[in-house]
Amino acid sequence: MKKIYFLLIVSLLFTSVDLSAQNKVLKRKVAIGRFSNETQYAKSVFYDKDNDPMGKQAADILAARLASTDKFLLLERQDMDKITEEMKTNNASLKAIGADFLIIGSITEYGRKTIGTDNVFSTKKEQIVEAGVSIRLVDVSTGLIIFSGEAKGEAIAENKQVMGIGKTADFDATLSDKAISAAISKLVENIINKCMDNQWKAYFLSAEDNTFFISGGKSQGITMGDVFDVFENGKKVKNPQTGIEIELPGKKIARIKVEQTIGTNINDEISIVTFVDGNIDVTKLDKYYITEIKN
Asked: What domains are defined for the chain?
């Protein structure tokens, strides 16, 4: 009987390890590059489009939603602006910055209204805010838009008085947050799915005396002992139908193992790796990318 219990415990331990490995999530790095206000609301003579409160409000709501999933690392604003600028010039440098995806959004609709009804003994007033949001998700490694969507949200506050007794209030400013949040909520699931469906990638940063450094570290979920595949970039061809240059699937050429992760935050974290099998040309590190092993 003791032997049976022992075998059962061992089996459960191995099952736990297997499940842990299967549930491992390598976090994607996301930058919210711009969230503009395309409506006329809150635009006075002194309006500054670079410091639009509604745009910042929407960006903060989206960032909070993505962060709550524990599947993403969000870049600081200075890095977001840098990525937006770099996309216009040099795609290769985006890998060094480290963003996997760039989100560009805008508030396309915004309106508020008050509806009231007066009866003999009671009055009722409803404050309604409606907001429309548009979002584009860009794969930084290719520059292609992999998701584009629009959604609308609504928030309502009700004030009611009976025989002069009840709640009265000016316009509820929190309704703006709630309406924008409701619109973004309808798009977040698609954003998450598109990001996680796309292959996680890391890149070689440097090679010195048979010591190789790759992008990413502890914050992304990389741990000592992790094993990854190394691929050589596929050939780039131009699609005659769209005129867009696309990259063909890469060729697996090696496998690496993480020996150590170093760094203090997402901006300076890197990992030290060794080769389990295969090799690369150390003079052309930008020819390769690293990804998870597919079961």
From this structure: 27-196 (3.40.50.10610), 201-291 (2.40.10)
